[in-house]
Amino acid sequence: MNETALKIHLYGIVQGVGMRHHVRRQAQHHGVRGYVKNLASGSVECAAIGARPAVASFLSAVREHPPGRIDRIETTPLDTDEPFVRFEIRF
User: Fold this and answer.
1) What global pTM score does this model have?
2) Which of 12, 27, 64, 66 is in Cβ range 3.0-4.6 Å of 32 for a Cys bridge?
3) CATH of the domain at 9
4) Active site residue 20
5) Which range marks the domain in which residue 39 is found?
6) For 58-87, what is each residue's pLDDT tens digit?
7) 52 assigned to active site
8) CB burial of residue 78 (10 Å; 0-12, 13-18, 19+)
């Protein structure tokens, strides 16, 4: 399977607006595994693992209709051995 894994940081008004739940719904809809969590810096961090087209569609959906205001999104390759089986909200 041709999978990709990304670490994604969302910046802007992304905490206290339902962003984590929105991201999880989009991940489940697109068949992406990983996690989403708030960071102390006020940003939101995600790990997204799945087929390349699914991860790309997930990222587009998160960008298009956020519940808050995303000012900037940064993505970097994610190197992990963690066996993600679903998408979860982490605290």
Assistant:
1) 0.94
2) 27
3) 3.30.70.100
4) yes
5) 3-89
6) 999 999 888 989 999 999 999 988 899 999
7) no
8) middle
Distance CA 4, CA 33 (A): 11
Q: Residue 21: how many CB atoms within 10 A of its CB?
A: 12
What whole-number distance in Å separates Cα of residue 49 and Cα of residue 47?
7
> Positive or negative, the Cα torsion across 60, 68, 30, 51?
positive
The DSSP bridge pattern shows strands 33-38 and 87-89 to be parallel
Number of domains in the chain: 1
Q: What is the pLDDT of residue 28?
A: 98
Tell me which amino acid residue 69 is.
Answer: R
Label residue 1 by pLDDT band (50, 70, 90): low
Q: Residue 10: its pLDDT value, please?
A: 97
Name the E strands within the chain: 3-13, 33-38, 44-51, 69-77, 87-89
Q: Which of 25, 38, 72, 86 is catalytic?
A: 38
